[in-house]
């Protein structure tokens, strides 16, 4: 029964990742809108930022790993704030200073962040190396990479410099709104699950699924890099 549940969860994750909104992709209609408009458009960019986060499965998987064993709201707020700080910093500065990274490589690193957090939740580093890495520092650092993933895509769409800063700030506000909505859904689901007698019995298997999803993301992006290196 447990193996069947894990297999079903894995299939769900892979199905989500195969959708058109996979990782940092932007829908064609949104892409055209971004490329065509000029001037300040705060509400549309807030909407686009929130939509990106809600459909950004790499972000959601990482957030799930981060909060998996966090029970106190102040601890959740601290880690999510560190992630948001890193994410926002590189997204804003990356676009403003036109600093982009190959999208396949940066998304592979984002997949690595999911693998890292799943292994952390499984206690792998303590068993393998005899010490626990600084989880706060790791959350901040991987947040920086997540932000570069988004900034790289935004740069590719060549947003008009007219109104760039206000639109970027609005987009970032939308990203944080989307993150809060996704986090709320995760915490509600986790809250119900933690109250069941099977939580601790299945927690390890759930993180194996999370780790596997991260490896799939890495493989998908590295394959894209070697097929389309430009």
Give a structural overview.
By secondary structure, the chain is mostly helical. The protein has one domain (about 1-225). It is about 80% helix and about 0% strand. It contains ten helices and no strands. It has helices at about 1-15, 30-35, 40-55, 55-65, 75-95, 105-120, 125-130, 135-155, 165-195, 200-225.
Biggest sheet details:
none
Number of strands: 0
Distance between the termini: 45 Å
What's the SSE pattern?
HHHHHHHHHH
Which geometry do the CA atoms define? globular
In percent terms, what proportion of residues is strand?
under 5%
The oligomeric state is single chain
Low-confidence stretches: 4-8, 10-23
Q: Which structural category fits the helices and strands?
A: mainly alpha
Q: Can you summarize this structure?
A:
The chain has helices spanning 2-17, 28-36, 42-55, 57-67, 73-96, 103-121, 124-129, 135-156, 164-194, 199-227. It has 230 residues and is mostly helical. The N and C termini lie far apart (45 Å).
Secondary structure topology:
Layout: H1 2-17, H2 28-36, H3 42-55, H4 57-67, H5 73-96, H6 103-121, H7 124-129, H8 135-156, H9 164-194, H10 199-227
Helix pairs in contact: 1-10, 3-9, 4-6, 4-9, 5-8, 5-9, 6-8, 6-10
Characteristics:
single chain, 230 residues, mainly alpha, 79% helix
